[in-house]
Design goal:
Keywords: ATP-binding, Cytoplasm, Hydrolase, Kinase, Nucleotide-binding, Nucleus, Ribosome biogenesis, rRNA processing, Transferase. This protein is of the alpha/beta class and about 180 residues long. Helix content is about 45%, strand content about 20%.
Length: about 180
């Protein structure tokens, strides 16, 4: 946890279709001090796209260039990082990692509604089933700053954002022992 930033940086991560963007958009409405960084959009805006993966129909982000582009923003604080991966962001610049979890049937319905190809839907379901994103968070950040939240319903979304906003306004007064109190309870 940084003592230099007035406002924390929070990663909202999870499998595509789990509600990352919905959470960030709701949090922006609740927290006037934050900026929503949809990494896919930021990478395009700041010309950090290395290539396009035709098989998966997605852009490949130049992660080093991206980090160079957003480092000053992260040092200032108050950033909601919205991306399906979290491991590229230095732990020294991140204060909370929220891993959204979702039932596979919910993810399936959401991705189908978006028009994803069956192969892309299956790949994302496998990521959720095998807990790939949770493991990336655990491998790259201290467990004291990671929280897993269910994101299956509108009620989950509202409760999660309420908990995160309360945590946000207690930053940086959260002590090591109760850092995630209120979010996990």
């Amino acid at each position: 946890m940084s003592s230099e930033r007035h406002f924390p940086n929070i990663i909202i991560t999870g499998t595509p279709g789990c509600g990352k963007t919905s959470h960030c958009e709701m949090l922006v409405g609740m927290l006037a001090e934050v900026k929503h960084f949809s990494i896919s959009d930021i990478a395009k805006e700041r010309k950090c796209i290395a290539a396009h993966d035709k098989l998966r129909d997605c852009d490949i982000v130049d992660e080093d260039k991206l980090l160079d582009e957003i480092e000053d923003d992260l040092e200032e604080g108050g950033i909601l990082v919205d991306w399906h991966a979290c491991e590229i962001f230095p732990e020294s610049l991140i204060d909370l990692v929220v891993v959204l979890r979702c039932k596979t049937d919910v993810i399936y319905d959401r991705l189908t509604e978006r028009g994803y190809k069956n192969s892309k839907i299956q790949e994302n379901l496998d990521v959720e089933i095998m807990e790939i994103i949770v493991e990336e968070a655990r491998d790259n950040y201290d467990s004291s700053i990671i929280v897993e939240l269910e994101s299956n319903t509108m009620e989950d979304l509202e409760q999660n954002c309420d908990k995160i906003s309360k945590w946000f306004y207690n930053f940086p007064t959260n002590s090591e022992n109760d850092y995630l109190r209120g979010i996990t309870s």
